[in-house]
Each structure stands twice: as C-alpha cells, then as structure tokens.
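Following the same procedure, the fold was encoded as tokens, giving this record:
***
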Amino acid sequence: MSIPKTDQFPDDPENLTPARRRRARRGLIPEDLVEIADDIESLAHKTIPSFDFYLFSLLSAAIITVSILADSPVLLVLGALTAPVMAPFIGIALGTATGSLRFFSQRLAGSLVACGFVFLVGILGGYATFILKTPQLQFLIYNARISWTHLVLLLFGTVFSVISFKKEGQVPVLPSLAVAYELYVPLALAGFGFGSGQPHLWPDGLVIFGIHLAVLAVGGTITFLSLGVKPLKFIGYTLGSLVVILSIVAAIGLSSAGAIVTGKIAMPTPYPTLTQTPTPAPPSSTPTETPIPPTFTLTATVPTATTTPLPTATSSITPKPTPLYAEIAVSGGYGAYVRTEPKFDPTNVLTSLINGTVVEILDPSPTYDEESNYNWLNIRFYNVEDEKYQEGWIVQKLLVIATPPANW
C-alpha cells in the first residue's frame, strides 16, 4: 500500500502564531541590504592595490625626486602624471564609510606600503646631494608648508574621485592626479630632507602628508555617505565616527592650531616689518672758554715762576652709519636659504627665508666665492622659530634694496 504524495505549500504568514512570525522575519534578509552589500563588494575589489600600483608609485617617486634635485616644477608635474590611479587611497574612505575594520585596515596598510616606497626614494635623492654637490633649492619651501590652495586641490580630487568611483566604478585620471600630487610630493620632500640633512624639511613634509591623508579620509567618507554608502550594521557607525574624529583631531593638532604646542611646525615663517625710524643728527661739540689764571711774579731775589694752564680735553661723538636694509626677492622661487659660511654646502644651511623677508646688511661690501662664482653678503635677521636675531650669509643677487650702494 503506497501513501499518496502531497505537495508542500509554505505556511500562510497570517495563520502563523506571533512567535513563528517573529522567527521568520529574523531569518529573512532585506533585499535593499543585499543590493547594497553586492555594490560595496564590487567596489571593494576595485580598490585592491596591484603590482602596477606599486611599480608606478616607484616611478612617480623617482621623477619627483629628480625634479627636487633639478629644482624643476615641470618635472614635478610629470612625476604626478606618472603616478598610478589612487584607488587604494579611495578604499580607505570606503572602508571608513562602510564601517568594515578589516577592509579599512587592508587598504590603509597597502597604501602605506606605497608611501614607504616614495619616502625611501626621497631619502636616496637626499643622499645624492652630497655626491652631486647640488646647490640649495628654492622650490622646496612652498610644497613643504600648509596652504589652503593645496587643501582645496586635495578636496577637489577626493570628492570627484569618490563620485566617479561610486557611479562609474573607476577613479578618473584627473582627480587621481590631484590626490597623487598632494600625497606623494610632500612625502618625497620629507625623504629628501631626511637624506640631505636639511633642518625642519623632513618633519614638515611628514606633517603635511599626515594632514592631507586625514583630509582625504574625512572628505571621502562624507562623500560616500552622501551618495548612499552606509554601514550594513549599526556597529559600523562606530568605526566611521572614530576614524573621522581622529582625522579631524590629527589635522587640527598638526596644523596651525597646534603651532603653539608643536613649536610652529610646518607653518610659514612670518617676517618682521620694516619701520622707518629717523636717525638723529650727530651732536656737534662747541668750544668752551677756559679762564686763564693770573701770573704771579716774585721779588728780584727769587726767580719769577709762571704757571701755564693745562689744555682742556674736549669729547666728540662719532656718528654711526645708517643701517642698510634689504628684502628677499627670488625670481621664479619662493625664498632663499641663509648659510653659516659664504659658500654652497648642504651642511651649512642655517634656515630659510621666504620672499618679502626684511634683513639688515651688516657689511655692504660683498665677499666673493671662487668656487660658486657668487658674491655673498653678511646679514642679520629675526628668526621667529628661535625668537632671536641671527647672523648669516646669503647670495647678493637674491636681495633687493631701494637705494643700493655703489658697485651693488
């Protein structure tokens, strides 16, 4: 005797008990979350750093370092053009927006490996200055300091990269170029300063790189969230909030707001203003009338004694020469280096002064250096970092004065 087969039909939710209906709802996955998860998974695979990413990062770092050695802005742009698509850095913002700690850690580690390559190439370029005996460069100053124009360019590249990456699935070249310029250039400068031993250059470059990376993470996360990318779990908001808060705190602490604590790290050097003070005329000494005492004459039996008054000494004040001031004016650059000796040597750099800084010329007669074929002047200036006046040497043609002396 065979038992007839019966078709199995799912239970009607309306006929289930409340407990069974709750268990059924917990076992279902909302379709919108499934679509979001698939979309995030597809984007995540496109941010994996590949071999080409590291290879072109090395090539870009090499060209940027050569541009630093040659003091050539054109080669600097070429180095940024050869940089790879910065998709792994966009993945840092994606991991923050989705709240995935594992994904965030992987993309951050992969990006920092490429940054390590750029820093090492910069160190090699810094050591090359001792072999090539290259003069100090003027183009470095602007790229190793905080500037709102760099932050605007970085935000432009980050926002447009995220928008195109979310909608089209790939990072466009032009916004990626802006991101690469703002991350790789200060990092290469930091390595170059570390290798060449230039004071304040390598910590300034690292600070600028850290601020730019924090701005990229915050700007990219906010853009992803505004485009609908959100954590699949509530706990994911904790990671995103933590990263954003730490990035903001790091950016504020390392920027101008923390200059008082950090000793004005990576901040533009302010310069004292020139105040014209009238020079008092030297006082003239007027002759004074000294009375002559009368002559005493004795009797004939005693010789006559005559007293002669001693000459009265008069004091005269020697007038001091008027101080001679000049201004840093480097054509095609942003400033000049002050050295401890009148010659080019990577080890005798005292500090750097930006264009417009007013200095006092101690001796208007220049000192000629046969090795560099330049005339050098001994100057005094106010060092804001050390908060004191210092003396040093600078190339004569880098200064401009309103009324230059003869043979200037």
Notes: Residues 27-33, 256-279, 283-290, 296-303 have pLDDT under 50 and may be disordered. The longest strand covers residues 358-369. Residues 27-262 form one domain. The two ends are 123 Å apart (CA to CA).
